[in-house]
Amino acid sequence: MRKTLLFIFVLGLGLAVFAQQRAVVEKSLREKAVQHTKPTKGIDDASAYATTPGQQQKSILAEDAIGNTWYDTQSNRSMQTRLYLHGDGTLGAVWTKGPEGAPSGPDRGTGYNYFDGDSWGDWPLEAIEDGAQAGWPSYTDFGDNGEAYTCHDY
């Protein structure tokens, strides 16, 4: 019994030590140079507008309220496509709409609004779905057929 336990202990120790060996990287890969470029401060460069946490900054983008929600956890571990910029400059937007402060209630659904290039549409009073408890929507272009959305449905 002692020999068996000693053998298992030595084997386990040997495997543990063997697993800690450093990976060998080829010399050609270790000496490979990486090209670095300096960031530019163009309008399309997000780093030009980087802010320090805790400091208030004024956004270069205008903000418009396009709807309301009581559902504070919009992402739920992943972020779907909630806004879509169409090729003609119009925008479509969806969000989880939970009226009356009860986002998990039976009237939860998808809020939708559309920017026609000049202004957003009126605030939606009801969800897109009719009588379904839906949420976590995604929105996209649907080619010549218009637009499409998909969401979680009970």
Task: Please characterize this protein's 3D structure.
The structure is a single chain. The protein has 154 residues and is an alpha+beta fold. The chain is built from two helices and five strands. It has helices spanning 2-19, 27-30; strands spanning 83-85, 91-97, 109-115, 134-141, 147-153. The strands form two sheets. It has a three-stranded antiparallel β-sheet, with no helix packed on it. Strands 4-5 form a two-stranded antiparallel sheet. Strand 4 (134-141) and strand 5 (147-153) form a beta hairpin. The longest helix has 18 residues, at 2-19. The mean pLDDT is 75.
Whole-angstrom Rg: 27 Å
Estimate the strand proportion. 15-25%
- The SSE string, one letter per element, is HHEEEEE
Query: Share of helix among residues?
Result: 10-25%
Shape field: elongated
Strands, count: 5
- Quickly count the helices: 2
Biggest beta sheet attributes: 3 strands, antiparallel
Q: Helix- and strand-based class?
A: alpha+beta
The strand order across the widest sheet is 1-2-3
Mean pLDDT: 75
Stretches with pLDDT under 50, minimum 5 residues: none
